[in-house]
Amino acid sequence: MGAEKRKRAPSACLARVRASRKRARLAAKGKQASTEAKHRELGGYGKSCSSINDAPVGGMKKSPAYLKVLARCGGKSRLPEAKNRAGAPLKGGYPLSKYPVNVLVDGQRAAWLPDDWAQVIKNTGPGGVYIGFMSPGGKFVYHKNLHGKWTYGVEVMVGRSLTALDGINGIVRSVAASGVSVKNDKAFLQQCLTSTERRHVLPAHKFHFGVVSARRANEERGIHDLMIVDAHFRIAGIRATWYVDAESLPDYLKLGLDAVVGGKLTPARNTILKTAAKKGQVAVEVSDDIGKWLYYDVSKQDLRGQKDFAKANKAVAGARTHAITPLAAAQFMLAKMRSSPLKPKLAGVLPTGNATMTMGSDEYSTQHFILGDFFVADMSPCRFDESLTLKEDYDFSCSHVAKHGSVLRCNRMVLTVRHYANQGGAVDIRDSAGKNERKNIAILQRKWPGVFKMNKKRPSEVLMKWSNYGKRSKETQALALKAGVKKPFLKLAVKPKASTMKDLQKLKDQQDEIEAQISLLPEAAHDDKTQKSFPLLMDRFQKYLLRRGLKETSAKGYHNCLSLLFMRDFRSYEASAGEEYKALIKASPQNKNAHGQFHAAVSHFRSFYQVCKCGQK
User: Fold this and answer.
1) Pairing of strands 374-377, 282-287
2) Quick one: which of 64, 135, 308, 556 has the fewest CB in 10 Å?
3) pLDDT at position 63 over 60
4) How many whole angstroms separate alpha carbon 536 and alpha carbon 532?
5) Across-strand partners of 521?
6) Helix (H, G, I), strand (E, B) or coil at 120
7) What percent of the chain is helix, strand and coil (3-state, nearest 5)?
8) Is residue 125 within 8 Å of 44, Cβ to Cβ?
9) Model pLDDT for residues 420-433, shown as the tens digit of each residue
10) What is the percent of the chain where pLDDT is above 70?
11) Is residue 564 within 8 Å of residue 576, measured between CB atoms?
12) Neighbour order of strands in the sheet with 140-141
């Protein structure tokens, strides 16, 4: 059924099925815990250690190990066949039919376990359970460690250290078991896109997938995260390019990844965009710690008057959910962008992993923040500001809205991502005092006045509201006044002659377009934006005008005009004295309604700056 005809309300039946499964899991877990406690109380086998060949008292199905595996397989009424459990060998391995009586194949699997090994569970002598591993030769092994305190383990038998790369096929099987497959991707695109939108679905070779990563290929949890991301790529049949720091490059190559040196965060992001543009491909940037891509196929819910999340949680429980590959997610977002009348060039996902937060919102946002963890950039000249070390995705979002008029945030597309706790990347840039966060937030607020305000609920975080662009906060107004600017922002000197709202809106749109073009010019250096540097320059500028014979009132007027422009645009001194900036100011409705005063001020500043560059006084 196409997307045009489907009912997309939450399903009460689906919610009941999920609730029933959850109850079964919890009940199985509780039964296992109580059974193990009872066995321990009764003394288990009556000895400190039991053999894998010791049959459990009362039979295997009543033992703690059996109930443990049952709980780890979802709490169903009966165990899946041993070959279908996650712990079973992927190839070769010791024949399952020959397993000892006190050993069961587990319902989970260690990420580092080689394909021909099995993860198993046995009952212990005191009445508990123990998770171990079965070798291809039928040896039961208790531990992994080669370098730990144990002298005998899986790594000792294999003869080397093991990482998630050794268990990549098991990871792929685990991801596939969660519903991720090429077949399900096709069903997702068929169901969730209209026939018109499906015409814009591109094949895999039209995308350039780039993963930005650093210092995560040399520790166990980091390698596990990388392999989970790579498993999704493998299922989709694509090879991503990993942009990493130079020091870690050998570690990433050892994992079998197509890794290249990308430099620091924002340069690496720009390299991905440039590489995609050079190849004529659509850029897709991916975080290195994404565990799942989920799409909630549900319409907007009416949550007005709700004082808690009960109704929203109920909607999530009944929503049809698609577990998809990053390729399908990128295809979906690109198709939505290219079929949109707004023609955005940047698409992203919900910036939180909590799907409850999206149930009452629109399915798509057009002027909101696009999260850097996963986004699609479709042939745009916009680039990341490399002066930013954090919050670079906020700036990139604003650049796209300024340049193209909109972005596309898919609020039903949700990621599970590790943040703030993982080693490497932006986590290493953040500091406990939040100094780096505040430094980058200050740059955002100067560059996009009015758009960002501090999040009172989450320290060192900001809230973005594009409709406030150009509306100055009290802090920015204070900075402008200290710089010698008497008015907080530009105002029309003469009321426009247009008598209709349509004409007024046209003037506003023209002014917004010019300011958007100005925002693409080089930004002022941090030192040039300080309360000390800029007023000194303006003082020199006013003295220059007086030496040129201008009246004091005229010199002061041009001084104030230029100060207003700088505090609005924050362009570099070089750009402010450039021909392009002068032409844009001349064409602006605000300049025309001020009788050309702003253009005249920029013209005088251009002459002043050229004199300064030549070293003349």
Assistant:
1) antiparallel
2) 308
3) yes
4) 7
5) none
6) strand
7) 45, 10, 40
8) yes
9) 445 555 445 555 55
10) 88
11) no
12) 103-105, 118-123, 129-134, 140-141
Model confidence pLDDT, tens digit, residues 153-192? 899 899 888 999 999 999 999 999 999 999 999 999 999 9
Asked if 569 and 489 touch (Cβ cutoff 8 Å), the reply is no
Map tokens 């609920």 to a residue: 457
CA triple 394-395-401, angle to 5 deg = 95
Q: Give the CATH number of domain 170-429; options: 3.40.1000, 3.30.530, 3.90.550, 3.30.750.
A: 3.90.550
What is the model's pLDDT at position 347? 97
Domain map (residue ranges) of the chain: 12-162, 170-429, 430-471, 474-613
* Sequence-ordered list of residues with C-beta below 8 angstroms from that of 488, at least 6 positions apart, any chain: 472, 476, 477, 480, 481
* Integer Cα distance of 404 and 398 in angstroms: 10
Instruction: Provide the whole-model pTM.
Output: 0.74
* Pairing outcome for strands 129-134 and 282-287: unpaired
If we measure between CA atoms, which residue out of 543, 516, 562 comes closest to residue 611?
543
Identify the residue whose tokens are 């008598």: 499
Q: Which of 96, 238, 86, 99 is nearest to 177 (CA)?
A: 86
Rg (CA), the chain: 31
Q: Find tokens 């990128």 and name the residue.
A: 330
pLDDT band at residue 147 using 50, 70 and 90 as cut-offs: low
Q: Could you tell me if 122 and 101 are in contact, meaning their C-beta atoms sit under 8 angstroms apart?
A: no
131 beta partners: 121
